């Protein structure tokens, strides 16, 4: 059975008119032959509206109830889109997360999909229906409604594409695909036609609004090629796939890989924390990161300084939202291990250059640092990987930082620049 | 285990502040000893808002999707109220219809509860939690979300009170209880302290906003005494119970029952239909009412005229909303049985006098017709039962009709008048 998964985000579903246009797009795909499985987010700003109601009740919101509340947003979209499809003559049925057989773990608000029982969806497809599935949600083994966290609808789409062995997984939004930088910041930014999972993961991780990182991870692990496209235009978008698939598309010839700068990504809301003067014993870093993990805080950059007088400093960054949880964890650990001080501050941003082969080409880092220095931007922390160089800078300098690095690597030129 | 079921309607939950006050009321009841199970409707005008979104898509809305859509309204209320309870220190958990084990039949939009599996709710009660259950909804044997129709949350409350053997079932709204007439129409209307199921059913059937008729039916069949109370005042409300229970409360003495006028009810939106000149053969009425039942149209008053020249007329009334479905049914039957004509018109209202012993006291009807005649109000159809006399009148005369009948039976006097 030929299956295409199409996922539509909140901005594609913000009004009844938009829902009608999405229905027409789905029906058009189906008329070309394949069965279509649709995954939807909540309409427009529904999630923010629901969140506002809950927060008006108090600050310590029970996570289980927040999940139960937020999950209704996607259910509204499924019912309306399934109805819109039926009204234009395309058989369709709505499915909540649990109706679609999506089981998650028990971590409210950030649940992970652990299994998908496709029996009901396959039954719907065999009956000739377009299943319209609520993204972002599932059900825990205890029968509680869970949500996958913001952007989790992308993950739902990739998971369904994987388990249904779909021939395509198209993620629609209001942008044309993945760009060399955020076009709102860099007017010369260009669409990238094809990009590897690992490169895309770095971009998503750094705040690009096109795709959630977890969805890209999930796609990479399951070999699902994603196409990021615009809902309301016919552009071909950006394919996110494996390096092997990219090589095949170039015609299979051998390429001596050099460092290729693909994109400049940024993240506006980063908090920096540090544990200063901790005894240089094994196991201290482990305690810090275990305490953070227990609070479901993701750590991004990590720097451990050289030991000095038998003591050292551990600094790291987290998302701005996680500052308080991280501060709490840090203070608990500090008291236990006897650190001299803890630091915690919001107000940072991160700019990153992404592309294959960064680590083996030292010139890349030098070009990036020079571009920032020319703009008078101070670099607070640096981290590098095989495919990324990131610099922590003050929040107010982010736009200038992105523009200067984008220019320095020639990403505004028709052919992707290389260093 | 002592259990009290408390149901709160949409007007009691229309804002975050209202939800907080409801939480305090629930917590106060629980602090007196009993376990509390809460049933909620959708917040304020949520249901109308959702309905508006669906209707904007088109006129032929798939009933399954409408149910999936509307059910989200109550889910929002459960999550917010469960959170509000937890925030004030009262352990609570939200439950959708399916999580609460409520199974219905497959009639989308007007589903009936066929079973309640209380395992999960009992588990929650044993854990010391207040279960907050979404009213108005359940799940069909196929795993589809169904709704019980407008006001179905009352039915959910009664069903839970029955299966959990609750000691009380309190239905809260923004009115103080059941009145001798709608206080918006009759300023002298008084609260009725106690009323029998059958009397209440007639009042509910005729458009009183306090309780849905199905909930009263369900209460009568299962011996659940309902108390209709106001959310935001401490009045004792109206008890709706069996005639036996009422006798017990009077002290068990024997009372020679006379006709006791209890209330004047009205319904503003009635449509009248007729099949004229049908052959006087057995089975014709059956066909008409089968065709209506197939379209889920409830018929109210029915009049079959005397046979004339081997033909007769069948006239009946339905809710204004059902006019088109009823007209369709009538035309199909008319073509089959060879009737001379069909009539279908909206624009009627119904005024009814309710109380035990009406049929055995012919003077009651005479007093009612005289009251209407004095106001110059024409009576279009009449129907009577053991506990009710109803007159169909033109829509514009409803208010005057209610006031004149209320006065004629002395219902504005401290002691309930009798005829």
Record the SSE blueprint:
Two copies of one chain form a homodimer.
Chain A lengths: L2 E6 L7 H16 L3 E6 L5 H12 L5 H25 L4 E4 L6 E3 L8 E4 L2 H8 L3 E5 L2 E3 L5 E3 L4 H12 L4 E6 L20 E3 H9 L7 H10 L3 E5 L7 E4 L1 H7 L13 E17 L4 H11 L4 E6 L6 E9 L3 H15 L3 E14 L7 H13 L6 E5 L2 E7 L3 H11 L11
Parallel strand pairs in A: 1-2, 1-9, 2-6, 3-6, 9-11, 10-12
Antiparallel strand pairs in A: 4-5, 7-8, 11-12, 13-15, 13-16, 14-15, 16-18, 17-18
Helix pairs in contact in A: 1-3, 2-3, 5-7, 6-7, 9-10, 11-12
Describe the 3D structure.
2 copies of one chain form a homodimer. The first copy, chain A, has helices spanning 16-31, 46-57, 63-87, 119-126, 152-163, 197-205, 213-222, 243-249, 284-294, 323-337, 362-374, 398-408; strands at residues 3-8, 35-40, 92-95, 102-104, 113-116, 130-134, 137-139, 145-147, 168-173, 194-196, 226-230, 238-241, 263-279, 299-304, 311-319, 341-354, 381-385, 388-394. Chain A is of the alpha/beta class and 419 residues long. Chain A folds into 2 domains: 3-249, Carbamate kinase (3-Layer(aba) Sandwich); 263-408, VC0802-like, CATH 3.30.2130.10. In chain A, strands 3-6-2-1-9-11-12-10 form an 8-stranded mixed beta sheet, sandwiched between helices. In chain A, strand 1, helix 1 (16-31) and strand 2 (35-40) form a beta-alpha-beta unit. In chain A, helix 2 (46-57) runs antiparallel to helix 3 (63-87), helix 5 (152-163) runs parallel beside helix 7 (213-222) and helix 9 (284-294) runs antiparallel to helix 10. Chain A is globular. The relative contact order of chain A is 0.10. The mean pLDDT of chain A is 90. Chains A and B meet through helix 1, helix 2 and helix 3 of A and helix 1, helix 2 and helix 3 of B.
């Amino acid at each position: 059975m030929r299956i295409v998964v199409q996922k539509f985000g909140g901005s594609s579903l913000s009004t009844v008119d938009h829902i009608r246009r999405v229905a027409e797009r789905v029906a058009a795909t189906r008329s070309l032959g394949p069965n279509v499985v649709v995954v939807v987010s909540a309409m427009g700003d529904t999630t923010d509206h629901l969140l506002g109601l809950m927060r008006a009740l108090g600050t310590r919101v029970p996570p289980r109830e927040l999940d139960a509340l937020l999950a209704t947003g996607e259910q509204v979209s499924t019912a309306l889109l399934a109805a819109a499809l039926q009204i234009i003559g395309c058989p369709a049925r709505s499915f909540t997360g649990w109706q679609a057989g999506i089981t998650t773990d028990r971590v409210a608000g950030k649940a992970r999909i652990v299994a998908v029982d496709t029996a009901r969806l396959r039954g719907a497809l065999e009956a000739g229906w377009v299943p319209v599935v609520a993204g972002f949600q599932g059900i825990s083994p205890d029968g509680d409604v869970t949500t996958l966290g913001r952007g989790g609808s992308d993950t739902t789409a990739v998971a369904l594409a994987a388990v249904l062995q779909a021939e395509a997984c198209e993620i629609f939004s209001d942008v044309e695909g993945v760009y060399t930088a955020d076009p709102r910041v860099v007017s010369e930014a260009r669409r990238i036609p094809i990009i590897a999972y690992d490169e895309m993961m770095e971009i998503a991780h750094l705040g690009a609004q096109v795709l959630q990182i977890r969805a890209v991870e999930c796609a990479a692990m399951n070999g699902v090629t994603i196409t990021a496209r615009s809902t309301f235009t016919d552009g071909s978008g950006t394919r996110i796939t494996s390096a092997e698939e990219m090589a095949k598309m170039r015609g299979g010839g051998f390429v001596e890989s050099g460092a290729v700068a693909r994109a400049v990504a940024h993240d506006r809301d980063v908090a920096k924390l540090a544990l200063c003067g901790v005894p240089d014993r094994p196991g201290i870093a482990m305690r810090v990161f275990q305490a953070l993990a227990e609070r479901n805080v993701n750590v991004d950059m990590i720097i451990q300084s050289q030991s000095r007088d038998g003591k050292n400093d551990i600094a790291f960054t987290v998302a701005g939202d996680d500052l308080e949880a991280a501060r709490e964890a840090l203070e608990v650990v500090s008291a236990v291990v006897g650190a001299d001080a803890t630091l915690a501050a919001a107000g940072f941003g991160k700019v990153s250059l992404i592309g294959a082969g960064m680590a083996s080409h030292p010139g890349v880092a030098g070009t990036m640092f020079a571009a920032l220095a020319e703009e008078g931007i101070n670099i607070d922390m640096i981290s590098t990987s095989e495919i990324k160089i990131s610099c922590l800078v003050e929040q107010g300098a982010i736009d200038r930082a992105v523009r200067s690095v984008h220019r320095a690597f020639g990403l505004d030129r028709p052919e992707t620049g290389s260093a």
